[in-house]
Write a structure and sequence with these properties.
Blueprint lengths: L1 H26 L1 H19 L1 H12 L2 H4 L2 H10 L16 H11 L12 H16 L4 H35 L1
Helix pairs in contact: 5-6, 6-8
Pfam families: EII-GUT
Keywords: Membrane, Transmembrane, Transmembrane helix
Protein name: PTS glucitol/sorbitol transporter subunit IIC
Length: 173
């Protein structure tokens, strides 16, 4: 009979802990996310959607910008998963590489811009809590994630574009 009591207490305890976590997020990070997202959309409206579109079309012409600036802007402005729609500015042969770059950037961006990919926030916060417990600054972690992420998305975009070209030639032959 004791095991039933223990099971009942711990079963409901799991939901209590989940509720506490939810309230912590709701009173902590959620308002910040809402304000960041509102700010981003306000900046887009202020700049103008046509200007943003022209800037993306310009960036699409150059490999360096196509696999750095485009994924960064797409993730920051449209968030995950809408960020991948920026691929519409590219020819079919470059879409896989853009997608690879954009999908690779949704985690590194989380430390500085948590609204961009809320699903990755829990991963980042877990790592950040470990860094915090070590007495190290979390801001350094966020900046390093962001900068390394830019390097990685560029490499992945270029490599994926080369692989796509190679495979396309194989299929045509």
């Amino acid at each position: 009979m004791e095991w039933i009591k223990w099971l009942g207490e711990h079963f409901i305890g799991m939901f209590n802990a989940g509720g506490e976590t939810f309230m912590g997020l709701f009173t902590g990070i959620v308002p910040t996310l809402v304000v960041l997202l509102t700010f981003t959309y306000a900046v887009m409206k202020f700049i103008g959607e046509e200007r943003v579109s022209r800037a993306i079309q310009f960036a699409a012409k150059y490999t360096l910008l196509r696999y750095t600036l485009m994924p960064i802007l797409s993730v920051l402005m449209l968030t995950n998963p809408m960020a991948y729609t920026f691929g519409r500015f590219l020819p079919e042969k470059q879409k896989p590489a853009f997608y690879d770059s954009a999908v690779s950037f949704v985690h590194p961006v989380t430390g500085l811009f948590p609204y961009a990919n809320a699903g990755e926030l829990f991963v980042y916060l877990g790592i950040a809590n470990g860094i915090k417990e070590l007495g190290l600054p979390i801001a350094d972690l966020a900046v390093r994630y962001f900068l390394v992420g830019i390097v990685i998305i560029f490499i992945r975009g270029v490599v994926t574009e080369l692989i796509t070209k190679y495979l396309s030639k194989k299929i045509e032959a």
